[in-house]
Amino acid sequence: MADPAALPRRILKEAQRLRLEPIPGIAVEVSETNLRHFLCVVDGPEGTAYEGGKFKLELFLPAEYPMAPPEVFFRTKIYHPNTDKLGRICLDVLKDKWSPALQIRTILLSVQALMSAPNPDDPLRENVAEHWKTDERGALAVAREWTQKYAM
Amino acid sequence: MTKKSGTAPHLRLPSFDAFASSLDAMTVEALGDDAYYASWFDDSDDAENDDDYVTNADDADDADDGFPDLGLREGLPSETCSASRNSVYVVYEPGDDIKGRRELINRACGVLGTSERDSEALLHFHAWNLEDAVTSWFENERKAREACGLSDPDAQTSEGGMATTTCNICFDDFEPSELVTAGCSHAFCTGCWAGYIASKIGEGLSVVDTRCPMTKCPIKVGEAMMRRFLNEDDAKKFDVYLGRSFVESNVKIQPCTGIDCERSIVFENLPTNPVAVNCTCGKVFCFSCGGDTHHPIPCKVASEWTKKITLDGANSEWMLVNTKPCPKCQRPILKNGGCMHMQCSQCHTSFCWLCSSPWDAGPYACSKRCNQYKRTESNSNENRKKRARESLERYVFYYERYRAHENSGKKALEDVDKFKSSALGFLIELQRTSETQVGFVMKALKQVSSSRQILKWTYAYAYFELADDVRKKNFFEHVQGEMERALELISRMIELDIKAFLPPDPDTEDDEKVALEKAMAYRYPPEEQDKLEKAFEQYKTLLIDRTAVLRKSCDTLCIELENGLLGMSTPIKGSQQDA
């Protein structure tokens, strides 16, 4: 299955559509060496601490895709309670809420939505979530600082 | 003697009605009452009664109880008592769970007039409780459908005019006839369905609750649809998951707790009291808590007791009362001789047992003059110790009896096997009779073993539940005492008296083989044969009657415990006999 020659038509179609109808605020580029590997840049949503930042993400489609969810990682440092140091993302549609009817497009939009609405009650990084809960203003300031420092 | 007819059916018919009607009679009638006892003597055709018991269980098997015909069990047969008597259960062999599940789905279809798919989703949602499923359906069908992931039948018309011809998963285009939905409007091609369902099988037990692949679509994929897309291997796995989910969510079913046993115990009607169940694998366990059987006392009391006797809680209490720490190394020391001069065996410190101060006054007396009473806090210490000692004595009292019955019960169980393997054969030979004619001894042995099991737990009950209520305690001890007496009478008969009819005990010098040969060659002396056969008849009548008495007193004790000893407010006729 991992043989690129056997790449399902669905993946080809998705890549094609992403090229023809790009997602506003999200750039997606297929890796030259592996057609299952996508390099994405998500604009920090307006009106959030991430505004103005360009966040790199890596997206990989496993052999079982679309029956199994894509693997998505932040490759830009981000101060967010639902991500961790390694860039892993805690997002339900990437885990148990995955449905084969979802796509790369919808997943990236979900990640962007997660940036707009951090959920400190279901954290991946305890200390960041704690910061969010006890001092949201302070946490947002750090997030803004990190955006300037790493995403601009 | 007329009274007899009122109670005897209870022995013959293990049915609930007969059992219930005998309840009243039993609480009023005294156990151990002479007249009552005599009535059992007259009822000497009891051996046949016991055979009836077996037939009866077989009859019940044929009854249309809605269960697959899997060999019905009537609680623990004759040797156990009340709680299990009125509860009927079956043992599911591996694979029967699927049959039972199907059975229940069919029943729901019959009651509700729904399709199999609807019934299955509804029952799954209601943890396989048919009553709940039916209630929710008739209360509000639309709501019930929504809750369990069934589509609204009125909205289903959209399927005909399916807008899309593209599969939502592989994005390929298809003829509408090639696309399939789970009953909602989301269409997928058969290839993607197969892939989706295969991936769900890989997720394990949750496959039984597979929903439409579309994001957030709540519609459940029916069993028939699942099977349509499963390959042979996955279909087998699916069956296992369906069965397991059925057993795990259904409160009327418990998986057997025996090692490596994959059977389950299934009740048609959930028993109200904790009930011991006996799996085909031989494991006996409490249906309610899954622990070892503790009939007739509640699960909570049994688990508290087990914790108490296994935990070092009681141990440390014993240490507290019986030992003192060495003043130097603090190791606990038990005084095993008369002299007050103690020497720690570990650090060799010498000290006075009474006041724990160093022993330095020579061999005769403590230098601290600890015989002189001084008013200090050590006085209250003594009080505390006294209380601890009393509580410990109480515990030891109950514990000893618990253990004694446990051990005797185990031995009785071994005796059953031993009897079956050797003595039974000798008896048939020597008494020139058949196996059915000596089966009563087995019944007595089994009754003894199960009675000991029950008695054992009643001591745990008494320890926890009867500390404060003297009236209850006295009543309980009366009922318990009656049972113990009945039990010991039988124990004597089956352990000692029976020896008169068996080959003599082997010489201690003989090895096993020689002993067995001698025993097999043994015959009664010809002039004794008639006499011994007659004596055996008498022995049989007496033992059968006593077994019946034990069974009845065992039942009484169980019923009383289950009802919180309410029987004590009923006058006891035979109590004067104790005086």
Brief synopsis:
The complex is a heterodimer of chains A (152) and B (579). Chain A is an alpha+beta fold and 152 residues long.
Describe the SSE topology:
The complex is a heterodimer of chains A (152) and B (579).
Chain A lengths: L8 H12 L5 E5 L6 E7 L10 E7 L10 E4 L29 H13 L9 H9 L1 H15 L2
Antiparallel strand pairs in A: 1-2, 2-3, 3-4
Chain B lengths: L1 H11 L3 H13 L5 H9 L3 H17 L9 E2 L8 H4 L3 E4 L3 H17 L3 H10 L4 H10 L1 H8 L30 E2 L7 E2 H13 L20 H7 L2 H18 L3 E3 L8 E4 L8 E3 L5 E3 L12 H12 L1 H11 E3 L6 E3 L6 E3 L6 E3 L25 H53 L4 H31 L4 H26 L16 H10 L4 H37 L17
Antiparallel strand pairs in B: 1-2, 2-6, 3-4, 5-6, 7-8, 9-10, 11-12
Helix pairs in contact in B: 1-2, 6-7, 6-8, 6-12, 7-9, 8-9, 14-15, 15-16, 16-17, 16-19, 17-19
EC number (chain B): 2.3.2.31
Catalytic activity (chain B): [E2 ubiquitin-conjugating enzyme]-S-ubiquitinyl-L-cysteine + [acceptor protein]-L-lysine = [E2 ubiquitin-conjugating enzyme]-L-cysteine + [acceptor protein]-N(6)-ubiquitinyl-L-lysine
Function (chain B): Might act as an E3 ubiquitin-protein ligase, or as part of E3 complex, which accepts ubiquitin from specific E2 ubiquitin-conjugating enzymes and then transfers it to substrates.
